[in-house]
Write a structure and sequence with these properties.
Length: about 290
C-alpha cells in the first residue's frame, strides 16, 4: 500500500510537471505571436485543427483560408493558412478545435560547400547487394529554389516532362509544374548532390524531384516548405524518394533541439513521418557558426 501511494504521488507530480511544461510552451508561442502583432496589423498563421471541421473556424477569417492539408479521417490533422488580426487571433486561442497556431515566418537560403569534405568518391566502387553506391534507382527530393533542368549536369532537358534526370517537380511560388530555378541555389545544391555532367555530385546516378519553395531572391514561406515536405512523402513510393534535402532555414538561431518548440511543430511531425517511411531528411545547420 505504501509503495502504491508513493507511485501515485510520483505519477501525479510528473503529470503536473508535463502540464505546466506544455502551458509554458503555449505561453511562449502566444507571447511571440503577440509581439509580431505589435509590428503588423494582420499575421499569416498556420492553424492545426484537432479533429475539427473547418467550418467551425471558417467564420473567424470570413472564409479567407487556404487549406494546406486535410485529413481523410478523424485521426488525421488539418492544417490551414489564415490571415488574422489580434482579435481573430484571440478567438482562435480560445477555440477548442484548434490544436496549435504557428506564425508563417519567412525562410531563406543556407549553403555550405560539402563535396570535398565528405570524400564521396571513396565509396563509389563499393557495392551493396550488387549495386554501386552512386544513387542508382534512388531519388532525392530537393526543397529549394527549383532546378535548371536545361543544364547539362541535369540532362539538358527542355522540360521535366521528357527529362530522365529531373523526373518530377512543382513550383509552389507560381503554382505550376515548372520548377525552373531563377535563383541558382537549388541547382547548386542539386549539382552537389546528384550532378552528372561537367560536375559530378555525391550520388551522380540518383534522380531529382524538385520542389521550388523559394523565389528569385531566395525567400519563401513556412507553409510552402511544409506543403513540399508533405508532397515529398506522398510521392516517395512513386519516385523511390529516399532523401529529402532542405538547404534553407530561418533567421532565428537555435541553441538546442527545437522538437518541443510550438512554433515549429509541423517540421517535427513531418520529419518523423518521413523517417518512419525510411526517408532521410537532411537540413542545413546554417552559415552563422
Amino acid at each position: 500500500m505504501k509503495k502504491l501511494i508513493i507511485f501515485l504521488i510520483i505519477f501525479i507530480t510528473g503529470m503536473l510537471f508535463i502540464s505546466s511544461f506544455n502551458t509554458y510552451e503555449n505561453e511562449v508561442s502566444q507571447n511571440k505571436l503577440s509581439k509580431e502583432f505589435e509590428k503588423n496589423n494582420r499575421l499569416e498563421l498556420i492553424v492545426t485543427l484537432n479533429n475539427s471541421n473547418i467550418s467551425e473556424i471558417d467564420h473567424i477569417s470570413n472564409g479567407n483560408i487556404n487549406i494546406l492539408s486535410f485529413g481523410d479521417n478523424k485521426n488525421e490533422e488539418s492544417k490551414i493558412l489564415m490571415k488574422v488580426n489580434q482579435s481573430e487571433f484571440n478567438e482562435l486561442l480560445s477555440n477548442k478545435g484548434v490544436k496549435s497556431l504557428e506564425y508563417n515566418h519567412k525562410v531563406s537560403l543556407l549553403m555550405n560547400d560539402v563535396v570535398n569534405i565528405v570524400n564521396a568518391t571513396k565509396i563509389w566502387d563499393y557495392k551493396l547487394n550488387g549495386t554501386n553506391l552512386k544513387g542508382d534507382e534512388q531519388s532525392v527530393c530537393i526543397i529549394d529554389t527549383g532546378i535548371n533542368y536545361s543544364h547539362e549536369d541535369f540532362g539538358s532537358c527542355s522540360s521535366i516532362a521528357n527529362c530522365n534526370k529531373v523526373i518530377y517537380g512543382w513550383d509552389y511560388i507560381n503554382k505550376d509544374n515548372d520548377p525552373m530555378d531563377d535563383n541558382g541555389h537549388g541547382s547548386h545544391v542539386a549539382g552537389i548532390l546528384v550532378g552528372n555532367g561537367t560536375t559530378t555530385g555525391i550520388a551522380p546516378n540518383a534522380k531529382i524531384v524538385a520542389m521550388k519553395v523559394l523565389n528569385s531572391t531566395g525567400e519563401g514561406s513556412y507553409s510552402d516548405v511544409i506543403s513540399a515536405m508533405q508532397d515529398c512523402i506522398s510521392l516517395s513510393s512513386q519516385y523511390n524518394i529516399s532523401v529529402i534535402s532542405m538547404s534553407l532555414g530561418t533567421i532565428e538561431i537555435f541553441n538546442n533541439f527545437c522538437d518541443n518548440n510550438p512554433n515549429y511543430s509541423s517540421y517535427k511531425d513531418l520529419i518523423n513521418e518521413a523517417v518512419s517511411k525510411n526517408i532521410s531528411v537532411v537540413i542545413a545547420t546554417g552559415n552563422d557558426g
